[in-house]
Amino acid sequence: MKYLNLLVILSFSNFALKAQITVGSGILPSAGDKYYYYLDTSGAGINLGSASGSQSWDFSNVLNQRAISDSYVSASGVPGSNFFPTANLASVNQGTTLFYRVTNKNLELLGTYSAMNPFFGGPNVFDKPAVIIRTPMDYQDQFDYTVNQAFQISGSIIPDSLTMGLTVDSIRIKIKRDVLNTVDAWGKANLKSSTYDVLRLKIVTKNTITVEAKVAIIGWIDITSLASGFFGGFLNSGVSTQYVFVSNQSKGYIATVDVDSTGSPTQISYKAENVSTFNPDRDFNSFSLKSNLVSNLIEVENISSSEHQFDVDITNLQGTSMIKSRLYWPEGTTEVFQSDKLIPGQYNISIRNKTGQLIWQRAILKITN
Predict the structure, then answer these.
(1) pLDDT below 50 — which residues of the chain?
(2) Are 229 and 293 found together in one domain?
(3) What pLDDT does residue 163 have?
(4) Fewer beta carbons below 10 Å: N end or C end of the chain?
């Protein structure tokens, strides 16, 4: 009887292990990607459940108050890219460009650049990369990072009352951000667009903000407590918590839920449509590009894909489609695409199946005709 009970326990344990997913690098963004999200700022009807396995999150009834999007382009040629020589991806967010380095496993944020902000514009290069997505990702994984930022502005804008009557040359605002990521749950998330097998990350961010004034002879002095009234909400140090859901079924985040200090949801952003990932072990070698260097013709062979209907898209580094084609493409045949009208430069060629799933992608370099 004890032996039978042990077998039952082991059977359930094996089932639980199989139900858990490992999120791979297919979720990482690439140049040309654009993810659409809907936003609900009411926070009503969202139940986050517990930090454990085999959870179910129903987000199918949340509101659609407005739409937002994340777009990614190649970092090459983007304003400010010269400050981030190792960046290979960029994203513009409310006038600020975020520069990333995408590896075969991780998404690393290298810093930001803004040409619009009169006080805090220009480059903000992190002292070390912030690994914001790390793969492969499993239940109960944990990773953290710290970002140190500093902005310096003229002291002429600061009233004398903040500096005790001393002449101030400049003001320095220092921000330290400590971020702890914990994969605290797994299960299924039900959205309006689809149902996803997900991992949930709990992201706890601690912000510490200080203000320093540079005074002649004395040097830098801390005026944080005095400056809080002048800078208002900008100097809000504290701890914030966010829950992020990721899945092998779609690139980027599936959903993001912000909570207040009591743990109650305040808003949710969620995927408006699925942006499929691809299985590199299965699909990465299904097609073969004759040469990455092309002039008038791009030749691609379907080596092993048993699907027959495909959409081919050739885009520039800004993600703009230059050549599009929907075709019947049997296994073992080669298709030729005219590229004589493309100007010299780098492009991406991608292939999707009839369901819209990305199954193959390569970079090509167009040389002179």
Answers:
(1) 1-18, 278-282
(2) no
(3) 60
(4) N
Segments forming the whole domain that contains residue 211: 20-271
State the Cα–Cα distance between residues 170 and 153, nearest whole angstrom. 6
Number of domain units in the chain: 2
Query: 361 CB contacts (<8 Å, ≥6 apart)?
Result: 30, 278, 348, 349, 350, 351
Q: 220, 239, 271: which is the final residue of a domain?
A: 271
- Chain segment 180-234, per-residue pLDDT in tens: 999 999 999 998 878 999 999 999 999 988 888 888 778 888 877 776 665 555 5
State the Cα–Cα distance between residues 228 and 209, nearest whole angstrom. Answer: 10
Q: Can you name the residues that pair with 175 across neighbouring β-strands? A: 149, 209
Q: 169 with 185: CB under 8 angstroms?
A: no
The pTM score is 0.68
CA dist list (Å): 137 to 149, 200, 260 = 28, 10, 26
SS3 10: helix
Residues 360 and 241 in one domain: no
- Exposure class string for 266-302: b at 16+ Cβ within 10 A, else e: ebbbbbbebbbbbeeeebeebbeeeeeebeeebebbb
Residue with tokens 């108050």: 65
